[in-house]
């Protein structure tokens, strides 16, 4: 049974600006495993990666019904399978988490469905 759906979008120019001017934000949003991946990427892909993970975590908090605050960025870890498919590897939710992340040149989008 679906118990929550969340969606979020983030403008990538804002993420690129954050990467350049507020590097503390990166480690606030990304878990240590996500940060390891982030650091191996070129700047364009870093922007997409951080934007996608940020949107995903915001979407998760909406689906969970709390918003960011009661659910923290570090409470959710989004990794990828070998195929590249994103998976919520770690979260405070006990059930199945479905995730989709996509982006254009200007915006990253994420959708989360929580199922029990």
Automatic annotation (TrEMBL):
Which reactions does this protein catalyse?
Answer: apo-[ACP] + CoA = holo-[ACP] + adenosine 3',5'-bisphosphate + H(+)
Q: Reply yes or no: does the keyword Hydrolase apply.
A: no
Query: Cross-referenced InterPro entries, in alphabetical order?
Result: 4-PPantetheinyl_Trfase_dom, 4-PPantetheinyl_Trfase_dom_sf, ACPS, Ppantetheine-prot_Trfase_dom
Q: What does this protein do?
A: Transfers the 4'-phosphopantetheine moiety from coenzyme A to a Ser of acyl-carrier-protein.
The protein's required cofactor(s) are namely:
Mg(2+)
Q: What organism does the record attribute this protein to?
A: Vagococcus teuberi
EC nos: 2.7.8.7
Assigned keywords, A-Z: Cytoplasm, Fatty acid biosynthesis, Fatty acid metabolism, Lipid biosynthesis, Lipid metabolism, Magnesium, Metal-binding, Transferase
Its gene name is: acpS
List the GO molecular function terms. holo-[acyl-carrier-protein] synthase activity; magnesium ion binding
Enumerate the residues binding Mg(2+): 8, 58
Q: Which family does it belong to?
A: Belongs to the P-Pant transferase superfamily. AcpS family.
Record's Pfam families?
ACPS (PF01648)
- Entry's Gene Ontology BP terms: fatty acid biosynthetic process
Highest taxon of the lineage: Bacteria
Q: Which GO terms describe its cellular component?
A: cytoplasm
**Subcellular location, record wording:** Cytoplasm
This chain's protein is named: Holo-[acyl-carrier-protein] synthase
Domain 4'-phosphopantetheinyl transferase stretches: 4-102
Q: What is the lineage of its organism?
A: Bacteria, Bacillati, Bacillota, Bacilli, Lactobacillales
Q: Which HAMAP family match?
A: AcpS
